[in-house]
Each structure stands twice: as structure tokens, then as C-alpha cells.
Amino acid sequence: MLRLVQESVANARRHAAGAREITATVRTARGTVRVEIHDDGRAPRAIGRYRGGLGLIGMRERVHLLGGRFTAGRAPGGGWQVTAEVPLHRTGAT
Predict the structure, then answer these.
(1) Where is the Histidine kinase/HSP90-like ATPase domain (predicted)?
(2) Does domain 2-87 have CATH number 3.30.565.10?
(3) Where exactly are the structural domains of the chain?
(4) Sheet containing strand 80-87, strands side by side
């Protein structure tokens, strides 16, 4: 999950025009760890056509490999938000 935070902060610094603040929150509850990264900048308009790297794709793949859920996109109050939730223990593990 640390790598996800690192990549999200790097992406915000690189792509969030006018961002003054980047926050990262990590919580555990009900057998999961949840990470939220939010910036207050302006997201690129052509996010679907951006070809500069594989940051979001790599983050999504890492989270899914761990059995988790991942979202990234414009935040309701402005800026950009990345959210990941991963189970602390895999189902069936002893």
C-alpha cells in the first residue's frame, strides 16, 4: 500500500495543475486496509488519452492481485482522488 501512496503523490505532483495540498489517509476496519489520496488541483482534461505512463494501471493491477478494490478519478469536491481497499487477510488463510 505504501507504493500506491508513493505513486499517487508522484502523479499529483506531476499532473494536478495548481494543487496546493495532497492528503493521504490510511484506515483499517472490518478486516481491510483502506487508503485514500486526494489532491486539490485540476485534473487533466484528456485523462483517457494520457500516454505518459502506466501509474494508474499498475496501481489498479496491484490492488486487484491482492483481492481489493481500486478507484481513481475526479473527486466530488474538486481535485483528484485515488482510493484502494485491500483485505488484511486472504479468505481461507490460516
Answers:
(1) 3-89
(2) yes
(3) 2-87
(4) 22-29, 32-39, 80-87, 69-74
Distance (Å) of CA 80 to CA 17, 29, 30, 39 = 11, 24, 26, 5
Beta carbons of 43 and 74 less than 8 angstroms apart: yes
**Contacts (Cβ under 8 Å, ≥6 apart) of 93:** none
The predicted-structure confidence for 36-80, as pLDDT tens digits, reads as follows: 999 888 766 555 544 455 788 889 999 999 999 999 988 888 888
Cell of 79: 481535485
Residue type, 37: I
DSSP-derived letter for residue 78 is S
Would you mind telling me the total number of residues written for the chain in this entry? 94
User: Left (φ > 0), alpha (ψ -120 to 50) or beta: where does 78 sit?
Assistant: left
